[in-house]
Amino acid sequence: MNIRMSRRRRIYEGKAKVLFEGPEPGTLVQYFKDDATAGNGAKHGTITGKGVLNNRISEYLMTKLGEIGVPTHFMRRLNMREQLIRKVEIIPIEVVVRNIVAGSLAKRLGIPEGTVLPRSIVEFYYKRDDLNDPMVSDEHITAFGWASPHEIDEIMSLSLRVNDYLSGLFLGIGLRLVDFKLEFGRLWENDELHIVLADEISPDNCRLWDIRTNEKMDKDRFRQDLGRVEEAYQEVAKRLGIMPETANAPDNSEKL
Predict the structure, then answer these.
(1) Within this chain, do residues 66 and 98 fall inside the same structural domain, yes or no?
(2) Is residue 78 in a domain?
(3) CA atoms within a 13 Å half-sphere pointing along the CA-CB vector of 113
(4) pLDDT by residue (tens digit) across 39-85?
(5) CA 64, 162, 190: angle at the middle one, nearest 5?
(6) C-beta of residue 196 within 8 angstroms of C-beta of residue 73
(7) Residue 205 lies inside a defined structural domain of this protein
């Protein structure tokens, strides 16, 4: 980890990222690690260069979503592993949008993986690793005050817009967007509260299958010990046209 980064005040460290105090009020620096986990931390490993790739992929996708009017916390990429983001109040809900049956949905309902859903399904999970992120309904969310009915409507609307856009974008590069996880936060601007897309969008939180072969091009390769994990992430970046600088190159972080 680079020296300049370590001098900044650490705000939060998660499984895949570290948040540091930003250079100006209302900002944070988001650092992408190579650490990989599965089963809410039960399995842990390292995917070489993952942080560099996810930083670039998330930058690209967040920028594209911003261009179509989806509000995000992303401001700009600072260097190979860091990006500047707006500080938001994270809503403690993970939003999963599913287009094809995979993962926990297949296990939960006994439906074969790969079954195309008749329409996209949006699920909510309470962000608590110690409870294995239990699935919740909008009734739970409003009853416990995690989000208001209006905020849930906004989150649903934004999630489906993101799904429509990303499904088309990935289809254009030969990938099927099976499902993905989103997080949202509250941002105050000019005395107005806005719901904005937060966290990241990358092969860490998207299931991506090759259209021709159904080969998995995401973190399931790590979860399921399929091998060639780094190559899958690199292939996604390559198809998006954003292959980054070499992951092993010196990390010349911007001086903040």
Answers:
(1) no
(2) yes
(3) 11
(4) 766 778 899 999 999 999 999 999 999 999 999 999 999 999 999 99
(5) 75
(6) yes
(7) yes
Q: CB under 8 Å to 182, separation ≥6 — which residues?
A: 94, 95, 96, 97, 159, 162, 197, 199, 201, 205
Which residues are CB-contacts of 55 (< 8 A; sequence separation ≥ 6)?
32, 77, 80, 81, 82, 83, 244
**Residue 148 carries which DSSP code?**
-
Place of tokens 């944070």: 28
Length of the chain: 256
- Cα-based distances in Å from 186 to 18, 28, 69, 135: 20, 15, 16, 22
**What residues contact residue 42 under an 8 Å CB cut-off, 6+ apart?**
none
pLDDT of residue 63: 98
CA contacts within 13 A on the Cβ side of 24: 4
Q: Is residue 251 part of a domain?
A: no
Secondary structure class of 187 (helix, strand, coil) = strand
Instruction: Give the strand pairing for 116-126 and 192-198.
Output: unpaired
pTM comes to 0.91
| Structural domain total, the chain | 2
Please give the single-letter amino acid code of residue 51: G
Task: Specify whether 111 is located in the same domain as 126.
Answer: yes
